[in-house]
Design goal:
Lyase, Ornithine Decarboxylase, Chain A, domain 1, globular, binds pyridoxal-5'-phosphate, 10-stranded mixed sheet, TIM Barrel, alpha/beta, 8-stranded parallel β-barrel, about 450 residues
Length: about 450
Amino acid sequence: MKKNNFKKFWKLGVKEFNTTPFEINGDGELVVREGNYQYNIYDLVRKFDASIKVYMPFVVEQRLSHLIETFNDTIKQAKYKGKYTYHFPMKVNQNKEFVLPLVAEGAHLEATSANELWVVKKMWEGENFHSKIRILCNGPKTPQYIKLIQHLEDKNLTITPIIETMDEAELLKDFKGERGVRLNMTLKVSSHWDKKIDRFGLSEEEILSLGKMRNLRVLHYHIGSQVLVDNDIIAALREAFKTYVKLRAINPTLDTIDIGGGFAVPYEKKKLYSMEPLVKRIITTLRDLSDRAGVPHPDIITEWGQYIVAPSQFTVLKIVGSKNIPKGVAQKWYMVDGSFMTDLLDTWAIHQKWHVIPVNHMDAKKKERVWLAGLTCDSDDKYADADGHVLLPRLEDVAQGEDMYIAVLDTGAYQDAFAMHHCLISSPAKIVLQNGLVTVARKRESPEEIGKLFGW
Ligand SMILES: *Cc1c(COP(=O)(O)O)cnc(C)c1O
């Protein structure tokens, strides 16, 4: 097989799979390209030892600038009168190395808790922000959260609490800044998170019963994460627009629709919808609905979180042992020196499927069907893809004194904050690739650091 065929086999260099930065070099090793810079991941992992998380800030920068450009260009072409702004939902990845480059590229933020807002306060005080940045505040408004919202409003940060319950409407009655309200729609979508009844937001009846609200600017909704069908995103927009028109009749200050998150990531490298045509449908749908209803074109906010950050990080694991499987759809267990349960927690929580590729021996002709097992003693600490196994090179083909490494792609969303300490497993180091330089943002957790969390 030629080099290009291996690249195709591992689904690298494909735009709709978000694998364009990945290449295979002449020695069958994984390399990452950033413009004319190149990083050899096999060298990297031998230097820093696995397991490591490798973060590529240039990927989030490119993804966000392309998204904003697409919205702005489409708005111009469609003669749409409203503006677009992107808000990064901080819960998807609160690491400084993720948030700061996004803000630099023009992202506004969405916080979901008092502690995330505390991070915002730190950035505001550190003058990391342009003074025009806007912060949306979702999540239950505890007294501590409300106090911080009020504090930042007093410090002239544009902060928009989103009212999600009738109690919050009352609690925020005297708040002088602008506000939003979250709509809970009954619409059903194709997503893992779609529940018959969810607790977020208010029904249309409840929202309208609130009457006139001081400085109401934003109608927000979030139909779920990883929405697998683009038609559902448009259907939700149409549904929410009906409420928008009724609410605007009572509150003429209302000028923005915030469609939340949900843009799906092709984790399994099967084709989903693409961004550009969906943006076009969003703009033209809103334009036509507004024109028909005789209201000005609303400003649009999206909070697509994992769409922007998931492909910017991958996790590299070392294979530390193997074991035969007597009878099963796979031939061998490969044990890794990391854990799916502690550091890729969605594997366990929602049976998340990943794209797993080798880091060396990518050009191996013979492969084996394996199950992957993590370091914890938990029988749930394992991984197989949708076909019931993972296809990887054979360990017996790895030369003496050499190790085999694998990469789990698209681990930049949610996993860092979900990480836990079952069996006191250390979280991997975080390595950053930028401008041709390799830096260590976070060292691998030491036994002392973990012990401390448990009072030792
Ligand atoms: C979780 C969440 C998001 C981000 O969802 P993604 O699936 O990552 O796009 C955006 N907005 C709100 C309100 C959320 O709760």
